[in-house]
Design goal:
143 residues, alpha+beta, two-stranded antiparallel sheet, 3 helices, 22% strand
């Protein structure tokens, strides 16, 4: 399975990424995914299309992670973004950057830190969240 991903960059097209088998039941159009682009950059993109066609000109990289359990953009918003890009002669990535709040944008230069007043219930955390909290308690910031 493959997905097209809108990246928050000035790109004239979307890129296809392969979906690891474990993520296939959970992925949907409109979800944020973490993907690598270039050699070392990681971006949060939006899934715009699901399909089974491997890209012809390059080998599709796998999606690194699903960042949310649900979609953050619906099909009507995606359709509207495409209209905006055509009307204003810009890219979908530019529209995405303008449309999404900054809290939903994750780039490879993002930094995580634990809020000093955070009250955490360890019983409600999954394994990844528990590991992340432990790491943030030892280090004040994670790039």
């Amino acid at each position: 399975m493959f997905v097209n991903v809108i990246l928050p960059l000035y790109l004239t097209r979307e890129y296809s990424y392969s979906v690891p088998e474990a993520m296939q039941p959970a992925i949907a159009v409109g979800m944020r995914v973490l993907v690598s682009f270039g050699k070392q950059k990681i971006y949060a993109g939006i899934v715009s299309k699901m399909h089974n066609d491997a890209p012809a000109n390059y080998e599709a990289k796998p999606i690194l992670e699903l960042t949310d359990d649900t979609t953050v953009v619906n099909k009507y918003q995606l359709h509207h973004w495409k209209w905006i890009a055509e009307y204003y002669l810009c890219t979908l990535g530019e529209v995405m950057s303008a449309a999404l709040p900054s809290s939903l944008k994750i780039e490879s230069e993002s930094t995580l830190s634990l809020h000093p007043d955070a009250e955490l219930d360890a019983h409600r955390l999954n394994d990844k969240e528990h590991l992340l909290i432990e790491t943030l308690q030892k280090k004040s910031r994670l790039p």
